[in-house]
Amino acid sequence: MKSLKLSENTGIQLPAKNLLAIVAGAIIATISFFQLESRIGSLETSRELFNADLLKKSEQKPTDQEQFLILEHLAEQVENIQKEMETMRNNNVNINYAMKDIEKIKNTLEDIKDKVRANGGH
């Protein structure tokens, strides 16, 4: 078997066309790798920013909590006011009915007074 001795002075015979193809392939592979790496980095950064914004927007700030509590309180007050208005509506009907009854009683009382006066009483 023949031994292969390589040193810095060893010469290689290679056609220029093949050498240029190898160099061009290495350059294209290197450029493609760095472009792909750059794109992946950009997408990861974009995803992290999106997640951070999403988390930030989902958190309730103290002002949001305060507004929510105020809103709940106002809704409760509106319900109470509606109930009170319904009872007032019923009271208004009852008051009108009572006023009619009082008018009838006043008229009846006047008739009785007139009859008593006519009979010689006070």
Integer-rounded radius of gyration: 50 Å
Give a count of the beta strands, DSSP E runs of length 2 or more: 0
Helix-strand string: HH
- How would you sum up the global shape? rod-shaped
SS class: mainly alpha
List unreliable stretches of 5+ residues.
Answer: none
Helix content: over 70%
- Proportion in β-strands: under 5%
Mean pLDDT: 87
Task: Please tally the helical runs, counting DSSP H or I stretches of 4 or more residues.
Answer: 2
Major sheet characteristics: none
Distance between the termini: 160 Å
Structural description of this entry:
With 122 residues, the chain is mainly α. The chain has a domain at 16-62. It is built from two helices and no strands. It has helices at 16-58, 62-118.
Features:
122 residues, mainly alpha, 2 helices, 82% helix, 0% strand, rod-shaped
Provide a compact summary of the structure.
The protein has 122 residues and is mostly helical. It has 2 helices and no strands. It starts with 15 loop residues before the first helix and ends with a helix.
Please give the structural blueprint.
Elements: H1 16-58, H2 62-118
